[in-house]
Recover the amino acids of this structure.
């Protein structure tokens, strides 16, 4: 199967379902040296007159290092049949395992970065802003308590969507 390039504003999707229920793989690096991780937090919208993705990555994650070194990343959204693969990619570190090999996913080179052949939707993004969440900026302190007592802070990445591809 192949992908068809689409304008981001023509996509028909529910971002709440896509991100919170279906999840996605965030991937950065060249196909010869990349890492991917499962995300279920993020956003889609318009900022600075650009179609953007907002993604959050803990500074302790292996993918964080790849995002710091590259200006590009992809968002790969999958059909439900790949749910176990996404669960695996979210619970195992690329420092210790080859996630593609373990899940059967096929990494592909696309627009100078990496995504997956099995995806139903790929968004190729260029970083335009990044900032580590700061403890003192939390207004709802329960979010700080619930999500950061034992784990590293997230860094927020805003990426403008350069290209969108849907599976034919």
């Amino acid at each position: 199967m192949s992908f068809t390039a689409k304008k981001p504003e023509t996509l028909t999707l529910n971002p709440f379902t896509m991100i919170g229920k279906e999840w996605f793989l965030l991937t950065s690096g060249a196909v010869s040296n990349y890492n991917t991780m499962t995300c279920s937090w993020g956003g889609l919208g318009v900022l600075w007159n650009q179609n953007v993705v907002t993604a959050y990555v803990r500074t302790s994650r292996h993918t964080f290092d790849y995002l710091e070194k590259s200006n590009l990343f992809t968002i790969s959204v999958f059909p439900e049949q790949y749910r176990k693969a996404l669960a695996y990619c979210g619970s195992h570190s690329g420092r210790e395992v080859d996630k593609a090999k373990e899940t059967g996913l096929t990494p592909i080179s696309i627009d100078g970065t990496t995504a997956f052949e099995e995806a139903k939707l790929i968004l190729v993004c260029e970083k335009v802003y990044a900032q580590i969440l700061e403890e003192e900026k939390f207004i709802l302190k329960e979010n700080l308590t619930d999500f950061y007592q034992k784990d590293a802070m997230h860094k927020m990445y805003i990426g403008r969507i350069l290209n969108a591809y849907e599976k034919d």
Notes: The domain at 3-167 is CATH 2.30.110.10 (Pnp Oxidase; Chain A). Strands lie at 3-6, 24-30, 33-39, 42-47, 50-58, 72-77, 107-110, 113-116, 121-132, 154-167. The mean pLDDT is 94. The chain has one domain: 3-167.
